[in-house]
Amino acid sequence: MTPEQLQKRIETMAPGTQVKITDLTGTMDHYQATVVSPAFQGKIMIEQHRMVMATVQKEIDSGEVHALTMKTYTPEQWEKFGSK
Amino acid sequence: MAHPLVGKVNEIVNGSPVVIFMKGTPDFPQCGFSHKACQVLRAAGVQSLQGIDVLSDDPLWTALEEVTEWPTVPQIFIKGKFIGGCDIVTEMFERGELQEMLK
Questions:
Q1: C-beta atoms of B88 and A49 within 8 A
Q2: Which are the contacts of B18, defined by CB distance < 8 A and separation ≥ 6?
Q3: Domains of chain A by range and CATH?
């Protein structure tokens, strides 16, 4: 899965979701994602992570994506914590 | 059918306010992520940390995976609720969310 494909896939999670992908190893299977979405409102962090994971479950299960670490933010959290 | 030890997992996580399933113990962690998670919890003010060593109880670990559907250790529970692993508690601590949850 290319970084572009991964970005587009995670963006399908909910309208207004913004995604930045970093390929950690250059091998297109260890990724880091920064995800900002209004759909995270009212969810604790693990629920936010599970929402993102669900969009790539198929690729995780098949091993195509070996690792996906992430940081998740509501738009308000992004304003407060995103710049650091 | 549910794993026979799922009941025991639920009993453990509801038995103490903060529970960590980890490799090793809070005093002698056997993995860097378990170690860091314990440090973060203590930094957040947790004084009584109930550690469960999954290295010494394999069947329990299988039951835990079934409860949380989370593939890695450590796994942290606060007030009976699954919160996440090392990355999540660290990020929650940095945002002040962990301290809020522990109140």
A1: yes
A2: B41, B46, B48, B49, B50, B76, B77, B78, B102
A3: 3-81 (3.30.300.90)
- Predicted TM-score (pTM) of the model is 0.91
Report d(CA A7, CA B67) in Å as an integer.
30
Tell if the CB–CB gap between B88 and A45 is shorter than 8 Å: yes
pLDDT, tens digit (0-9, with 9 covering 90-100), for B48-91: 999 999 998 778 999 999 999 998 999 999 999 999 999 999 99
pLDDT recorded at residue B52: 95
CB–CB of B88 and A71 under 8 A? Answer: no
Nearest-neighbour CA in chain B from A12: distance (Å): 23
**Structural domains in chain B plus CATH codes:** 6-102 (3.40.30.10)
Check CB contact of B100 with chain A, cutoff 8 Å.
no
Residue with the two structure tokens 């409102």: A41
